TrEMBL record:
Pfam families registered for this protein in UniProt: ANTAR (PF03861), GAF_2 (PF13185)
Transcription regulation found in the keyword field: yes
Protein name per Swiss-Prot or TrEMBL: ANTAR domain-containing protein
MF-aspect GO terms: kinase activity; RNA binding
Assigned keywords, A-Z: Kinase, Transcription, Transcription regulation, Transferase
InterPro entries: ANTAR, CheY-like_superfamily, GAF, GAF-like_dom_sf, GAF_ANTAR, WH-like_DNA-bd_sf
Domain ANTAR: 163-224
SUPFAM superfamilies: CheY-like (SSF52172), GAF domain-like (SSF55781)
Length: 235
């Protein structure tokens, strides 16, 4: 199995590198990674990523089927379940047969009623202050996951955690660039309208932002929107 793990790890490195090169958004990139995991982690039929914060609700960041999303909704409702335990309490949670599980009784009841899932394998992706994420693999048949599944799941969890961090930084960078462009356009409008230089135009935007308690980029976007020629035609 060692050779197989090394091969899959190499494929994951290539996949993550391609995601970075393609500048895929975070949700799309994570979905592609877990789809790959369904094909390679022994016994898996579905996969999903759970994100939660102690002060907010839990949600599915990515899922290959509606069943992982249903299970996340149940965990969110009762604040209990294997994915939460994997992230907050343990690095790995393995449920061989949900029918025989004695923990999280409310979660177990509704999971059995609403899905055919019987085997669950969850891995901590990260715990960052008050937020956490877990990678989850699921199967309808009891005892679907072996030691090989755990080994490969760990490989996927490691690479997905790294990819997520990378893609979130890319998203933040693209957002910063977009904000910079919007603010630049708004400064141009102010400079033309009020005969101000660049510094004066930015200072005016900043004062408007402070006085209205509104983000500077939102003030800028509203100004650009008000200047759009189609706006004036509709009036």
């Amino acid at each position: 199995m060692q050779d197989g793990t090394v091969t899959i790890a190499s494929q994951l490195v290539e996949l993550v590198t391609n995601l970075e090169r393609d500048e895929r958004d975070t949700a799309a990139g994570l979905h592609e990674l877990i789809e790959n995991g369904v094909h390679h982690v022994t016994g898996t039929q579905y996969a999903g990523i759970t994100l939660a914060e102690k002060s907010r609700s839990l949600c599915s960041v990515a899922a290959t089927h509606r069943y992982p999303m249903i299970l996340d909704a149940i965990q969110n409702r009762f604040s209990e379940g294997p994915c939460l335990a994997a992230a907050w309490e343990h690095h790995i949670m393995h449920i061989a047969d949900l029918n025989a599980e004695q923990r999280w009784l409310r979660y177990r009841r509704y999971a059995l009623e609403q899905t055919p899932i019987r085997s669950i394998l969850s891995f901590e992706l990260f715990v960052d202050g008050s937020s956490m994420a877990a990678l989850n693999f699921y199967a309808d048949t009891p005892n679907s996951f072996s030691g090989e599944s755990v080994e490969l799941g760990t490989v996927y969890a490691t690479h997905i955690a790294l990819a997520w961090s990378m893609m979130r930084r890319q998203d933040q960078f693209r957002s910063a660039l977009a904000s910079r462009d919007v603010i630049g356009q708004a400064k141009g409008v102010i400079m033309e309208r009020f005969s101000l230089d660049s510094v004066g135009a930015f200072e005016l935007l900043r004062r408007l932002s402070q006085q209205s308690n509104t983000r500077l980029v939102d003030i800028a976007a509203a100004l650009i929107d008000s200047e759009h020629p189609l706006k004036h035609r509709r009036r």
